[in-house]
Amino acid sequence: MSDHPTLDTGHPKPENRNPKPELSPGAFLDACAARCDDFFDHLHTRTLRDTPIALFLLAPALTILGVFGIAPLFFAIYLSLFGGKYAAGPFVGLGNFLEAFHTHAFWGSFLVTAYYAAGTIPSTMAISFIVAYGLFRITRGRGFFRTVYFLPYVTSAVAAAMIWRALLNPRFGVANAVLAGIGVSPQDWLLEPRGILHLVTSGWVPPDVGPSLALCCVILFEIWHSSGFMIVVFLAGLTAIPRELEESARIDGANTLQVIRNVILPLLSPTVFFLAIVSVIKSFQAFNSFYALTGNGRGPVDSTQNVTVYIYSNFYEYQRWGYGAAVATLLCLAIVTLTAFQWCFVGRRVHYE
Amino acid sequence: MIRRSILYFLLLAGALFTTLPFIWMATTAFKSLTEAVSPTLVWWPAEWQWHNFVETFQAAPFGRYFFNSFLVGFVVTGAVVLTSLAAGYAFARLDFHGRTALFGVVMATMMIPFEVTLIPNYVLIRNLGWYNTYAALIVPWCANAFSIFLMRQAFMSLPADYFDAAKVDGCGHLRFLIRIAAPLVKPAMVTVGLFAFLGSYNSLLWPLIVTSEDTMRVLQVGLTVFSGAEGVRLHLLMCASTIVILPTVALYFAAQRYFLESSLGSGIKG
Questions:
Q1: Given an 8 Å threshold on Cβ–Cβ distance, is A141 in contact with B251?
Q2: Which of A160, A161, A251, B235 is 20–30 Å from A351 (CA)?
Q3: What's this model's pTM, rounded to 2 decimal places?
Q4: Looking at A13, A46, A79, which one is the last position of a domain?
């Protein structure tokens, strides 16, 4: 009867009722997990509760976080007490910290970081909010624009910086070609150590006051590179706002600006607050764009040397590990202080629903 | 109607400003050297120089850099997903002493800036004899607080009834995690994995200091070295940038949903 044509009903063949234990990876894993579960079941007591299995599951993550995340913090503080080159220098106590406070380059690097934070955070936020609000008001093509605006954020800062370096090249860059088109003299962009205020006031402000043009280029790059992230976050915040609130304000005769000021921004304040905290921390840790745009991070006449670059060059080029660790510790303190300040003074004014 | 057109026009202008550098990069990668460095703006190559890509791979060992970046990226991604899956489950579902305090400590590591741990970790890597090895590039990045946080949130959003039902059927925590919980939090796993890969692939400072041999360099380091050595050969540099950017852009288009959704809920990692 085996060659008898059978009706294909489309149903799967009836399964074997007693399948042999097969040695597929999944089944093997399952068997191991069952064994381990039995073992942990034995260890489960009223006082221990789930502690044994928790330790088992947490061990890999905690080991790595402990060894490479938490322990180095204390080791950095220890290292910062030693002078000289590498880790073998003499004990100097707080000497490295005192030296930092008396070094012009140290304060200069903090100033660069401050310019950078002040130059990137408010403008990126404002631009991102405006774009996100524009996207919120349209229906067709929102997904497309969101995709495009987010694109720079996923590309590596190093590769993107290579493009911008070429665009800002003084000899053949696009930026100077555009300037020539509108009749402005060519600029040195990333190679220009003079302050931007000096250049726009045609020499009225001394050249060493304010951020250098090179630093402004880094700031512009960063705004371009990271706006996408904020746009997406703002857009999500905007779509979460109940439509009725905006509509009722409109019925009461509020115009767009009034709606934004009195309805949308207060409701969006947790998002703004979150973004502010994250971007302050990020701006204090910026390195990749500085390094890739200027070739060594320091830029012309050290005018783009931010704190991270300063730590890097002391550590890597001058091998002053103790001093580098001291500056890093100060930076850590600065970040913690600023974040705590934001929590205490700004966070209080955040409106939660 | 007019307002809407203006809005679309402005959004298009913004999109153009966002993408124009990439377009310029892609076309410059196909230009000849004279076109690339010409003082007047050339947008389109007169003749598409496909051999630029061959020359780029000959000028520097980009094949090797690619291999290194992908090897490190894949291992880090797998490890981060596994460690955060396990730790996230423990923090979300297990009942043990000091759970809240321990979770607080893990979250606090997010506040520690990278620069502080940089020098001590370098010393540690040197003492372990890991300088110029894959271990130095991989092991320190195999767990991070943010991924653990994301996985914990995902597990907390699962109904507790699932576990109770599985327990009645004689299923312990590990089997429940492997057979039931992990498949249910797959979107969170994909998100964690994507950001782990992207973070690893785009990182520069750490690979820069723990590797010095050309054979151990990853793409980002290789590209900066190449730009120093090949400063004038702009068309090749843009070729190199294109091939460095291409994988992440492809990944982004393939898994866009996860990228965008994850930055909504969270987004500390960049």
A1: no
A2: A251
A3: 0.88
A4: A79
